[in-house]
Amino acid sequence: MDKQNYELIVKGFYDFLEEGKVMGRKCTRCGEVGFPPFIACNECGCPKTEWAEISGEATVTGLTMPGIMQNFPDVAEAFGPYCFASVKLKEGSEINAIVLGVTASDRDGLRQRLPVPVKPRIVQRDGYKTVFWELAE
Ligand SMILES: [Zn+2]
């Protein structure tokens, strides 16, 4: 892996978040959009990728943790209840992500309604922005 290029891609991802854009990397060969951005295409291995804004259309396909996790108390303090979930993007990538606004009592009902639509929310953390997800309905 080309470390220098990878660092540029990571930096670019955060720079775009500052502009309010959630970006992935689109493969110039097969068109797969990778998210979060990676240096090469995860689908075909092609090293040539370019920036592409993701649609933001995504669904929760599974709740990956059994409870409201206490290991990011700063997240709960700043953004309220949340859970960990598998989020599948319309573009194809499936990621483990933080979904905001899900309480312990919401969880079982949510699980029965899967897949549930979510949308990205760019949030300010300590000195940088990152992407969490929230229920789209
Ligand atoms: Zn590809």
Task: Write up this protein.
With 137 residues, the protein is α+β, with helices and mostly antiparallel strands. Helix content is 23%, strand content 36%. The protein contains 3 helices and 8 strands, in the order αββββαββαββ. The strands form 2 sheets. The protein has a 5-stranded mixed barrel. Strands 2-1-3 form a 3-stranded antiparallel β-sheet. A hairpin with a 5-residue loop joins strand 1 (23-27) and strand 2 (33-34). The protein is globular, with a radius of gyration of 16 Å.
Features:
about 25% helix; binds zinc ion; 3-stranded antiparallel sheet; about 140 residues
Describe the secondary structure blueprint for this structure.
Layout: H1 3-18, E1 23-27, E2 33-34, E3 49-53, E4 58-63, H2 73-79, E5 82-89, E6 94-100, H3 104-112, E7 116-124, E8 129-135
Parallel strand pairs: 6-8
Antiparallel strand pairs: 1-2, 1-3, 4-5, 4-7, 5-6, 7-8
Bound molecules: zinc ion (ZN).
